[in-house]
Design goal:
This protein is of the alpha+beta class. The protein has one helix and four strands. It has a two-stranded antiparallel ribbon. Strands 3-4 form a two-stranded parallel sheet.
Length: 90
Protein backbone atom coordinates (compact mmCIF):
# COMPACT_ATOMS: atom_id res chain seq x y z
CA UNK A 1 0.00 0.00 0.00
CA UNK A 2 1.50 3.32 -1.05
CA UNK A 3 0.39 6.12 1.29
CA UNK A 4 3.01 8.69 0.35
CA UNK A 5 3.28 11.39 -2.23
CA UNK A 6 6.13 13.37 -3.67
CA UNK A 7 5.88 17.03 -4.54
CA UNK A 8 8.53 18.95 -6.41
CA UNK A 9 9.01 22.51 -7.64
CA UNK A 10 6.67 23.99 -5.04
CA UNK A 11 6.50 27.76 -4.70
CA UNK A 12 7.00 29.06 -1.12
CA UNK A 13 4.03 30.42 0.87
CA UNK A 14 1.15 29.53 -1.45
CA UNK A 15 -1.98 27.41 -1.04
CA UNK A 16 -1.81 24.21 -3.07
CA UNK A 17 -4.87 22.08 -3.88
CA UNK A 18 -4.60 18.37 -3.13
CA UNK A 19 -5.23 16.29 -6.22
CA UNK A 20 -5.21 12.54 -6.01
CA UNK A 21 -6.24 9.33 -7.73
CA UNK A 22 -9.70 7.77 -7.53
CA UNK A 23 -8.74 5.74 -4.45
CA UNK A 24 -7.94 8.86 -2.39
CA UNK A 25 -9.10 9.03 1.21
CA UNK A 26 -9.85 12.72 0.75
CA UNK A 27 -9.91 15.12 -2.17
CA UNK A 28 -11.68 18.28 -3.22
CA UNK A 29 -11.66 22.04 -2.70
CA UNK A 30 -11.53 21.73 1.10
CA UNK A 31 -8.28 19.73 1.01
CA UNK A 32 -5.15 21.81 0.57
CA UNK A 33 -1.85 22.67 2.19
CA UNK A 34 0.15 25.86 2.37
CA UNK A 35 3.81 25.56 1.48
CA UNK A 36 6.44 26.78 3.93
CA UNK A 37 7.57 30.40 3.65
CA UNK A 38 11.15 31.34 2.84
CA UNK A 39 11.58 33.25 6.12
CA UNK A 40 9.86 33.64 9.49
CA UNK A 41 6.18 34.56 9.67
CA UNK A 42 3.52 34.74 12.40
CA UNK A 43 2.16 31.22 12.88
CA UNK A 44 -1.10 30.13 14.51
CA UNK A 45 -1.12 26.74 16.26
CA UNK A 46 -4.10 25.00 17.88
CA UNK A 47 -2.87 22.21 20.16
CA UNK A 48 -5.37 19.98 21.97
CA UNK A 49 -4.84 17.32 24.62
CA UNK A 50 -7.84 15.03 25.14
CA UNK A 51 -10.59 17.01 23.39
CA UNK A 52 -13.47 15.05 24.93
CA UNK A 53 -16.34 12.95 23.68
CA UNK A 54 -18.46 15.15 21.39
CA UNK A 55 -20.43 16.78 24.18
CA UNK A 56 -21.23 20.39 25.10
CA UNK A 57 -17.83 20.92 26.73
CA UNK A 58 -16.02 19.92 23.55
CA UNK A 59 -18.22 22.18 21.42
CA UNK A 60 -17.61 25.07 23.87
CA UNK A 61 -13.83 24.69 23.43
CA UNK A 62 -14.22 24.65 19.65
CA UNK A 63 -16.50 27.69 19.69
CA UNK A 64 -14.13 29.58 22.01
CA UNK A 65 -11.23 28.94 19.62
CA UNK A 66 -13.30 30.05 16.64
CA UNK A 67 -14.25 33.22 18.53
CA UNK A 68 -10.62 33.91 19.44
CA UNK A 69 -9.22 33.06 16.01
CA UNK A 70 -11.77 34.85 13.86
CA UNK A 71 -11.04 34.46 10.15
CA UNK A 72 -7.30 33.94 10.60
CA UNK A 73 -5.91 30.75 9.06
CA UNK A 74 -4.75 28.07 11.54
CA UNK A 75 -1.33 26.96 10.31
CA UNK A 76 -1.05 23.80 12.41
CA UNK A 77 -3.63 21.72 14.26
CA UNK A 78 -2.04 19.17 16.59
CA UNK A 79 -4.08 16.57 18.48
CA UNK A 80 -2.02 15.00 21.27
CA UNK A 81 -4.68 12.54 22.43
CA UNK A 82 -5.31 11.33 25.96
CA UNK A 83 -2.13 11.85 27.98
CA UNK A 84 -3.56 10.44 31.22
CA UNK A 85 -1.13 8.34 33.22
CA UNK A 86 -2.73 5.13 34.42
CA UNK A 87 -1.72 3.44 37.68
CA UNK A 88 -1.51 -0.29 37.34
CA UNK A 89 -2.91 -2.40 40.16
CA UNK A 90 -0.93 -5.59 40.70
Amino acid sequence: MNCGSTASRLIPAISTQVESSDNALAAGESYFFVTAPIGPKPTRLWVLGDPGTANGNQRAVRDAYYGFNGSRYTDLWLLLGDKRIWQWQG
